[in-house]
Every structure is written in structure tokens, then in C-alpha cells.
Design brief:
This protein is α+β, with helices and mostly antiparallel strands. The chain has helices spanning about 5-20, 25-45, 50-60, 75-90, 105-120, 125-140, 145-150, 155-175, 175-190, 200-225, 240, 275-290, 305-310, 315-320, 325-330, 345, 350-355, 400-415, 420-430, 435-445; strands spanning about 65-70, 75, 295-300, 360-365, 370-380, 385-390. It has two domains: about 5-265, 2-methylcitrate dehydratase PrpD; about 275-390, 60s Ribosomal Protein L30, Chain: A (2-Layer Sandwich). It is built from 20 helices and six strands. It has a four-stranded mixed β-sheet. Strands 1-2 form a two-stranded antiparallel sheet. Strand 1 and strand 2 (about 75) form a beta hairpin. Helix 2 runs parallel beside helix 18 (about 400-415), helix 3 runs antiparallel to helix 4 (about 75-90) and helix 4 packs antiparallel against helix 5 (about 105-120).
Length: about 450
Amino acid sequence: MTAPLTNSAIVAGYVQSARGQTLRPEILDAAKMCFVDWMAVCIGARSTPEAQALRRYVAHNAQVGNAALLTGGMADAATAALINGTLSHCLDYDDTHIPTALHASGPTLAVVLALGSSLDAGEEDLLRAFVCGFEVGASFGSGRLGVRLNERGWHSTAVLGRLGAAAACACLLQLDAEQTEDALGLAATQAGGLTASFGTMAKPFHAGKAAADGLMAARLAQAGLAASHNLFDSGKGLFGSIFQDRATLPDLSGLGRKPEILANSFKPYAACQLAHAPIDAALRLREQIGDAALRAISVEVNPLAIEIAGLRNARTPTEGRFSTGYCMALALKGHPLTPSSFSTALLADPELAELASRVSMIANPEVERTAANVEAVLDDGRTLQVSVPHAFGSSGNPMGWPQIESKFMSLVQPELAADAATLFSTLESFEQPGSLRRTLSLVDRIGA
């Protein structure tokens, strides 16, 4: 009797099959939408304090190479993966695979672009590698495993993103099955990233480090560095050790059968996704309240929303993105919840701070992570109630290409002026030969 495949072997087999595979039209479209959104949030983050720190790091540590840095200039592939992956998550405006709480595009596209540039890979190969990495990372987090990581204090993007990045690199480098298993093992043994870092600059660093570690794992495996092939099948492996139960294992039964990229979601607001349903509710309340004063607001949400996005008394723009009360105050006062809304000036606004202090959050495990039930008590005695079953941007209420284009232009046009539209159309049809060269040429014009 043939022994069942290990989880590591299942993933390696999937990576082998992904090469040369023709992407279904809807999967290709989803992949390009991810690329457009990813590029927009990277370019939109170029002026952040995090980006300034990244530039200083590059000045002292980068090696010469032909991989583009979206902060400007060129470097080796490993540095580009680290920098661009970090940049993609600085605004917390990047896409989210809600079933696993994974920001899959951040590290995966960073490493695909960096490695693909150094290999002079074709556009279709880049898109295939991205989809491969996305599917691997998301599949490892299926069955609530990704959500449980966040609940236990481990950032799902940091843990799962390394595995997806390693798989994407294995696909591009055409590693054989054994090398791919080695790459996955090397990525798994580097896993880390704490949710206690949320609200600080370390959170976006998780995405960059996942990209860089995934690339290093694949390159080392290619060079012959072996690793355990049993880290996803043993209670002493990755997940059993993280959860300290010696029992948790991933369920990869859907890998290659259930396209996880089609369950991806995009953010209309530059804040933690768990705050999006309350924001939607606040926008509806604003229409109903008129000139009346608010006495109190109670927000019934999934418990994870309180744990991750329940920060009070936000003092920095990064903290503000993880403060549901502050986000709702912005919406109630007519601010657009774009990156500029999370400024030190608005955080110091006493009216916004006072309004945010009136928001109380109530945990209800029966409420989905994309939902919220809000009750507002007004000084005139009225009580208003709003329920949001599906936050805008989630799979139940998705953004389409027109909304993605609008978001892209709002972030990229200030940096690229008239060339922003050209970059959008290039990315929208990225499977066309020459698109990578045109993309990098356009990006190189920023700040020129």
C-alpha cells in the first residue's frame, strides 16, 4: 500500500504543477487586481516615516543588484523583497484574504517582483508564481488556522507569508520536489511575527521579512541546504509548536482545487480590516444624525476586532489605524479614511479624540469578522441602530475594477502625475510581454 503524501510533499507537487499552467481567466483577473492594488499601496507609502527608515537601511546595507526598490533605486533581490514587502504594508491599506487573516499579496508580490527581475522572467511566469505563492500561503491558513494564529498572538502574514513566498520562489527558480520541500522547511523554521507589534512600524516589517526569508529559503534550498520535510505533519512541527498543543496540523485538501485568490478582498479604507464594518456603520449613521450630538456609541463586533483593532487613545498614525473608535470618529466627521486621515494633526484634534472616547466595543463571537452591529444614543433622546453584514471590500460586498482604479489613481497620481494612468493600464494587462520592463521604467520616474 502506498503511504499517503506528507503535507510538505503535497505542496511541492502543487508547486511543480503550477509551472507552465494556464491561469483561468477569473484567476488571472484576480491576480492582476492584486498587482494593481499592491503597486498602489507601495507607491502611496513612499513618503511615510517607515519608507524613510527603509531608505536609510538601504544606504548602509544593500548590495548592488538589478531588482527595483519602490522607495527608489536598485538593489539585490533579497533587499528588494524586504523593502518592497515592508512598503506594501506600511499604510495597512493592502488587500486581505479574510478567511485566513492573511495579507498574501504583500510578501508574495514583493518576492516575485524582486526575484523575477533578477531572473528576467516572463510576465506570465511572474503571475503564475504569484498565484502559486498566494494559494500555498492561504491554504496553510485554511480551516481558521490563520485566524487562530492572530488570536494566539502570532501575525498570520508573518507566518503564512513566509511559506507562500518560499513557494512562489520555488516556482520561479524551478526547484525540484525535494528542493521545494527543503525551501518550505527552511521558511517554516524562520517563522515569527507578533501581533503585539500591531500599531507600530514592526507590523509592516513582518511582511517584508516574510518575503526576504522566503527568498533566502528557496535560494539556500537550491544551493543544497536541506531542511526537515516533516514540519507540517508532526505535532512538534510548525503549528503544533506555535499553538503549544502538539496537535494542530494544516488542512491542505483544498490546495489546487479551491482557488483561494478568488476569496481575496481589497480595502476601501486605510485601516485595519477589522475596523471596516464599524466604519461603514459610522458612514451610515452620519447620514441619519444630521446636526444632533452623539452621547454614546456601542459597537458589537467579533472578539478578534477588539483584540486587534480595539486600541484606545491613539497617538500615532499607525496606532490610529488599529483604533476602531478613532476610525469611526473620522467617518462620523466626514474624513475619507485615506492615508492622509491618519495624520498627527487629526490625531491631536480634541473633537475627534472626544468622539472616539464615546465608542465602546462589545465582543460577540456570533458576529462575523466582516460585520458589525452599532447602536448610537443621541443627546436628543433618539437611538439609532445600524447593522453591517458585509463590510465594503469584503467578498460579500466586493470592490470592482472601477473602485480599484479610483484607489490606484488617488495613491499614484500625486507621485507619477500623467504617467499614473499609463502604469495602471500596464498592470491591468500585465500578462502582455514587455509589461514588467514598462512597469519598472514608469516606477523609475518617481522623484526623477
